[in-house]
Amino acid sequence: MKNIEKQTFQNPILPGFYPDPSICRAGDDYYLITSSFGFFPGVPIFHSKDLVNWEQIGHVLDRPSQLNLDGGGISGGIYAPTIRYHNGTFYMVTTNITNGGNFIVTADNPAGPWSDPYWIENAPGIDPSLFFDEDGKVYFTAAWMAKDAHKFSDMEIWGQELDLTEMKLVGERHSLWRGALKNAHSPEGPHLYKVNGYYYLLIAEGGTQHFHAVTIARSKNVFGPYEGYEGNPILTHRHLGKKYPISNPGHADLVETQNGEWWMVALASRPYGGYYKNLGRETFLIPVEWEDEWPVVSPGTGRVESTYDVPNLPFFSVAKNEVRDDFEDEKLGFVWNGIRTPREDFYSLTERSGYLRLKLRPQKMVDVLKPPSMSMNPEENREDVIDHPSFIGRRQQHMNFTATVKMDFNPHNDDETAGLALVQNNNFQYRFECSMVDGQKVVRLIKCTSKTEMDYLKGTFSYENCETKLAEAPCNSDSLYLKITASGQDYSFFYGESLEKSQLLADNVDGRILNPDSAGGFVGTYIGMFASSNGNQSENAADFDWFDYEEIKSK
User: Which of 16, 57, 393, 451 pairs with 301 at a CA distance of 20 to 30 A?
Assistant: First the structure.
């Protein structure tokens, strides 16, 4: 008998900053979304038929009327969305922690358009989810501070019936579960499922960093009481140490295939160059089996593995991501994002055909930011609002990569800058920029870090920014080629009037400031194009002919 070799797939299925994955099935089609925080458009949505190969089909929140990110930090905005499909309609529920709270949007076509938000009143907390029961009732769950909380992480999962016609909560709010551990840290990310007569409540706990975990409880009644599984946590790497190649798995969602298999999507990180996670929290796919009416995650190992056998599903062919974006289309590709909600036109794909034009505006890439919980009304205190900069970027998705851009830019004064930026947040970034110094056009590398201290209870906030010029050189060409290469945590920067004549500006620059655990926040590193007049008005612009991004594969 012929021995048929099983096919495998490689984790993560979505590399780079794609955290808090949620998944649903509609017939033979699967749809997956992730958190997007302070980036616009928000909530990327992907389609697959085999759970392994995914194609982005859009963003759920692609209009300012859906997504107000004004005044928020890059780690503000949209937290932990959930996607569900029921009777021909897709539902996405999430939290805008910067402006508005919990809301639902709907669509007949997951590629959009999605509706404007239905804001859910009296729905405190974060990480909302929806559960459609067999009797037609719908339930809303979320995580919120427990009534007897002594510290910020003392949370509980609550649930309440939702009137889907009115998009309003009805009946009594019920406390469902406080997590598997005694005094569990940050129970959150709840999802309800019904399997063989039991309601299963899947949550994350332990915080989203090293001690993250997935735990589960069940009940015969949707509102409990819920009994925690004796085998909890059903997934964690907290016991494997910081040298293990995959860290902090958690915040999971389950899906059953049309062939009866169960799979889990969960976030996790791949530290490199030490315990540093420049890529952020990524999306992994993990097999699940049921034993004794409880789920067993990654049977045989209990760990998130880099490879598994593929699901029992037909292969789904997805177009290979192009290395180069020539900016020839009328709209930006789905890979691109800006920072915060655009309130004015800051880029154009038509003013110069075949180019992305970024307008120089007073908004800076670096700015002072007050935490959302301390910010005043932005309409009354404009100095507290962080506006959207002229930035178009994409996720860093690989430990080793090269990114290259061809830019036409002639600064008029010392304040006008444009180029490439590696961005972890508002105040931790590298800017590889062209500007002017004493009438001479220059290219330079700026390192930005900051020291921020805050006390949420006292409402105090202090901030100290530090910018360091690491290298500078004159350049006289109208067209400038900028290239960044990364070999692990060593980033190198090249410039020139052509690719063939590129010169090294700075070599082996330390990338560890782009680690979210160091910088503070929940996002991965972005790399993209920017332009700014740094506080002044300007009629100038920077034109980008093309942008290349490519993984450097190990030999």
Answer: 16
- The CA-based dihedral angle spanning residues 44, 49, 55, 56, taken in that order and rounded to the nearest 10 degrees: -20
User: How many whole angstroms separate alpha carbon 523 and alpha carbon 222?
Assistant: 34
Both structure tokens of 46: 């992907």
Sign of CA dihedral 9, 14, 20, 25: negative
Whether residue 41 has a cis bond before it, omega within 30° of 0: yes
Q: Cα 363 to chain center, whole Å?
A: 23
Residue 7 placed within a domain: no
- State the CATH number of the domain containing residue 456: 2.60.120.200
* Distance between CA atoms of residues 523 and 515, nearest Å: 9
**Three-class SS string for 38-62?**
CEECEEEEEEECCCCCCEEEEEEEC
Residue 280: phi, psi to the nearest 5?
Answer: 80, -155
| pLDDT number for residue 463 | 56
Which residues constitute the domain of residue 232?
A: 13-309
Cα distance between residue 425 and residue 278, in whole Å: 12
Query: How many domains are there within the chain?
Result: 2
Report if residue 314 sits inside a domain: no
- Say which of 20, 282, 387, 433 is annotated catalytic: 20
Same domain for 302 and 344? Answer: no
The confidence score (pLDDT) of residue 537 equals 94
Catalytic residue among 50, 127, 156, 188: 188
- How many whole angstroms separate alpha carbon 46 and alpha carbon 485? 28
User: Residue 113 class from Cβ within 10 Å (0-12 exposed, 13-18 middle, 19+ buried)?
Assistant: middle
C-alpha distances in Å from residue 338, one per residue of 7, 111, 421: 38, 20, 12
Q: Is residue 394 part of a domain?
A: yes
367 is catalytic: no
Mapped onto helix, strand or coil, the DSSP state of residue 297 is strand
Q: From the CB of residue 503, how many other CB atoms can be counted at a distance below 10 Å?
A: 12
pLDDT value of position 194:
98
Residue 267: closest CA among 512, 95, 59, 17: 17
Task: Tell which of 309, 342, 367 closes a domain.
Answer: 309
User: pLDDT, tens digit, for every residue of 80-100?
Assistant: 999 999 999 999 999 999 999
For strands 526-532 and 417-425, give the pairing: antiparallel
Query: Which residues in the chain come in under a pLDDT of 50?
Result: 1-3, 369-385, 454-461
Tokens of 72: 């928020």
Question: In terms of C-beta density within 10 A (0-12 exposed, 13-18 middle, 19 or more buried), how is residue 200 classed?
Answer: buried
For the question of residue 309 being annotated catalytic, the response is no
Q: Over the stretch 431-474, which tens digit does the pLDDT of each residue have? A: 999 999 999 999 999 999 986 654 433 444 455 678 999 999 99
- According to DSSP, residue 14 is labeled B
- Encoding tokens for residue 26? 């509609």
Other Cβ atoms within 10 Å of 30 Cβ, number: 25
Helix or strand run (H / E) with residue 519 = helix 516-519
What pLDDT sits at residue 153? 76
Q: Which residues are bridge partners to 46 per DSSP?
A: 32, 56
Contact of 19 with 266, CB cutoff 8 Å: no
